[in-house]
Amino acid sequence: MADRYERIYAQVRHIPRGRVATYGQIAALAGSRLLAMSSRPNGRGARLVGWALHALPSASDVPWHRVVNREGRLTIQHEHVSAQTQAILLRNEGVTVDEDGDGFVVDLGKYGWNGTMKNSK
DNA sequence: GGTTTGACCCTAA
DNA sequence: ATTAGGGCCAAAC
After folding, report:
1. What single DSSP character describes residue A65?
2. Are the beta carbons of A111 and A18 closer than 8 angstroms?
């Protein structure tokens, strides 16, 4: 089975409340623990995070809403869960979610997660 | 089992 | 600044 999903879920659970992380960071963190051999400078398996979250059961404890793309945008594509739902969940945790023509955006400079448990600044 | 697509990212021009 | 191309792994066709 896809054990990588478990690593991804574990990393997503490690995201502090009121903080957001990017797909690439999740992939890099989960990858560095298991796939440290092939740490290539390119985009690694960031798409796996998207697939993992898409296959995530709705009743899971994984805070999938704290995962955004590199621009801080909520590029979510799901049948029953919309980007607005994600925005509401983030706002519920105190994260300011901005909105423009393309959709919802989060300021990574303020709420971006470092990858550790320290603040980004 | 090859081809296409996807909640993405990086590098180069 | 934007556009184009390559890469990654899994699922759907």
Report:
1. G
2. yes
